[in-house]
Structure formats: structure tokens, C-alpha cells
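== Folding task for one protein ==

=== Format: two labelled lines per protein ===

==== Paired sequence and C-alpha cells ====
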Amino acid sequence: MIGLIIVLLIVGAVLYFKFSADPKELRERGKGRSAEQKQALRYFFNDGCLQKKVSDEAYDAMVDARVKSFNAKAKAMAKIGLDESELKEIDPVHFEGYYFDPKKSYAKRGKDGKWRSSAYQISWLFFSAMQVYLYQYTFNMDEDGKKEATEEYFYKDITNFSTSSDTVESPYWDPKQKKMMLENVDSNRFSLVVPGDKFFCSMEQNEYTERAIQGMKAKLREKKNR
């Protein structure tokens, strides 16, 4: 009887280790990463029934903390090199949202049906009497990768401000097949259009962004009609 109990305990321990251990993909990608980056990877790669999970809410909170710690508006003002008093044509506008890059980010559909990415993008637009200044910062939650960009456009060169819902083929971890798969993900983007080019900004569509874009369009029409 004691021998049977010992055998059952050993089998139970083996099964627990097998099903609670992190997937090989997660262990490999987590090498050399910080604790926060490993947590982000765990959100995208860990779906086992016994494995420690990171919830949608916890991951959103991690991203939100990173956004607040960066203080993007102050960074944008420093990069542009102008005083805020020179940028009072209309109130500054900011867009932010998950950024889906088929080469550098992972995607996951949350329990709420929302797609999240391991990359996030913040954009700020400022308006002087003659120009629109744009600052953009894109960062990754699972690694140290980041990208900053600044642009400036004369109103006379801007064709339009618009929004679009684009489909991006993004990699995600399939826990059943235990491998990376590709899924078409719909994401909302704002675009500043100039002849022959567009500058895109990831965004969450809500009342604020709707009002901000309408205000930008009104200002552009006003500048064009002068």
C-alpha cells in the first residue's frame, strides 16, 4: 500500500512538472530578459492549465505603467525644441494603442475579445501657426527595442487627416498546437496624409480621438481657405 502511494506521488509530481512548466518557447525567449519582460512574454506564451498566467488586466496595467513612466508629452516637446506657447493653434493631440508588427511583435486575443500586442505606440501632434509637429514613440514590452520619430509638415502640404481600420497578419502563440501561428488582426490607425506619403499612428478609437480628429480637420480647412 505504501509502495503504491509512493508511486502515485511520483507520477503526480512528474505530471505536475510536465504540465506546469513553462513552454520551451517561453523559456528560450525569456533568456536574458528582465523580470517585467519575462512577465510580458508569459502573457503571450503561457496558456497551460497549471501554469502561472498573466491576465489581460495585469498586462494592460503593465503597459499603462510604462506609458506613464515615459512622460511622452515632455519628451516630445524636448525633441521638437519649441516652447508650448508657440504651439497654441489648437490643443495638442495624442494617440496611443497597441502596435502590430508582423516582424517584431506578438499578438494575443484577450478574454474580452480585444487583440493586444507586445509592442505599443504613442504619438503626439502639436500645432503652430504654420506647421504641424509630430512625435512618435514605439516600444516593446518583451525586449529593449524602441523607436522614436519626429516629423513636421506645413499645413499647405497636408492633404488630409484620416482614420482607418487595417488588417495586419500578426504572429501569435497557439497553445494547442504549441507553435507560432499567423492571424489577421484588425487595428485602428490615424494617418496624416501628404502627397505620395502617409504617416500612421496606432490609436484606440473613442470619443476623445473622434473629437480631436474633427478639430484637426476643421483647423486644416481653415488654413487651406486662407
Q: What stands out?
A: The chain has one domain: 2-224. Residues 2-224 form one domain. Residues 2-20 form the longest helix (19 residues).
